Amino acid sequence: MAPQLDPFFQKVDELKQPFIERLREAVAIQSVSAQAESRPDVVKMGHWVADQLKTLGAEVELRELGKEPGREHLDLPPVVLARYGSDPKKRTILVYGHYDVQPAEKEDGWATEPFDLTVDEQGRMFGRGSTDDKGPVLGWINIIDAHKQAGVEFPVNLLCCFEGMEEFGSLGLEEFVKAEGPKYFKDTDAVCISDNYWLGTEKPCLTYGLRGCNYYSLTISGPGQDLHSGVFGGTAHEPMTDLVTLLAKLVDCQGNILIPGIKELIAPVTDDEQGLYDAITYSMDDFHISLGSETSIMPTKEGTLMRRWRFPSLSIHGVEGAYSAPGCKTVIPAKVLGKFSIRTVPNMQSEDVTRLVTEFINAEAAKLQTKNKIEVALMHDGKCIPITLTFEEATGKNVLLLPMGSSTDAPHSINEKLDTRNYIEGTKLLGAYLHYVAEEPLN
Ligand code: MN
Ligand code: MN
Asked: Is 304 exposed, middle or buried (0-12, 13-18, 19+ CB in 10 A)?
């Protein structure tokens, strides 16, 4: 039987303005996890989230994670654990989110103050963290609020796990979640994470897979120290020249991976799969808006989606040790480290990818006839958003990724926003999920 959602939905509509004010308060707290000087604000944000939950009647605990590895003068911000309801007859649903945000400065090119939520005539709410991930975290809090105010019985026991270090590698969280699997999270029947985005702007989506990531460094060294090009140019093997030569052999400008053997690892496309893409609500216009330009490689939505979802890609991310400040400095760097990653898809095993990458780079390096030292190394590999798998392992239950924001929200970027429509309808969606999961068979 379909749950009766109307009174809850109506209440969410009525509470639109207070919900926007709640997001405004949250965005105003500059909880930037990467910056040491912002740590007090990250902690303040954790307490703010805890207070919101307490006020609504949840049992809340702030769990400390100790010192930050590598920056031992900093305490890690607390994990906010909350339980709302403990009826043994109800399902227990665990939700995860993060209350920290990426750095933001007006000078980066924001049109508005990044920590001052600004709503335009179209209902777009601009502010750092609006969509990543304060809006969705408040979505869960708003759902409790709306149920209370509407006098509607809450359909499940809700467990919340909100962390404050997600944008800086979720330090300490993996061990914490594993340890709490048989303790705080032991009654969990299913896990829901709202920390990703719709494919487009019109239709909600369920994310059931993400490409993995193998990240590599390519280090080239030779001269004992940085050199002057006027004195040494043309007389010594230059690490930077070796590096750009090798990086250029990995991928072409049409996004094709040039490393032999990689293509053969990929699961083949079946006719059935090929037929699925046409019906997906998505357009090249959506893609160009999220890209912020029309610099797409593939001419069609089908080609774009297949490249985004089911084929691997190789991206070159940066070079350490090279001169990067403005102006003309005639230095020859003595040691450079290039960084690139390969997004992996089904059937690609990490070890196979690393073997092919290493063999290819070593073979190409030999052709350069350089005397510099060249080393390739795997920096990390992972099958998808790491914490998703951690929750799956720690609870032994399914994890659902149920996004609130749309493809045009620009998380991590300047002018990050969440549409009021996505915030309000997304709150209804997450609430409806709790009602449905309360009644449907789970396996
Ligand atoms: Mn996020
Ligand atoms: Mn993020």
From this structure: buried
The CATH superfamily holding the domain 5-209+386-438 is Zn peptidases (3.40.630.10)
Distance 132 CA to ligand 2 centre (A): 5
Indicate which ligand has the atom closest to the C-alpha of 197: 1
Give me the residues paired with residue 192 across strands: 95, 400
Which residue has tokens 């005397």? 371
Angstrom distance (rounded) from CA 355 to CA 290: 35
Alpha-carbon distance of 85 to 82, in angstroms, equals 10
Class of domain 212-266+311-382: alpha beta
Give the Å distance between the CA of 270 and the centre of ligand 1. Answer: 33
Structure tokens at 152: 């509607």
Q: How many residues are listed for the chain in this entry?
A: 443
Tell me the ligand closest to 412's alpha carbon: 2
**Model pLDDT for residues 96-107, shown as the tens digit of each residue:** 999 999 999 999
Q: How far is the CA of 122 from the centre of ligand 2 (A)?
A: 24
Domain residue extents for the chain = 5-209+386-438, 212-266+311-382
Q: Would you say the CATH fold of 212-266+311-382 matches that of 5-209+386-438?
A: no
Among all bound ligands, the one having the nearest atom to the CA of 401 is: 1
| pLDDT per position as a tens digit, 363-393 | 999 999 999 999 999 998 877 677 888 999 9
Catalytic residues: 100, 166
CA gap 58, 159 in Å, rounded: 9
Distance 291 CA to ligand 2 centre (A): 17
Q: Rounded to an integer, what distance in angstroms lies between the CA atom of residue 199 and that of residue 210?
A: 13
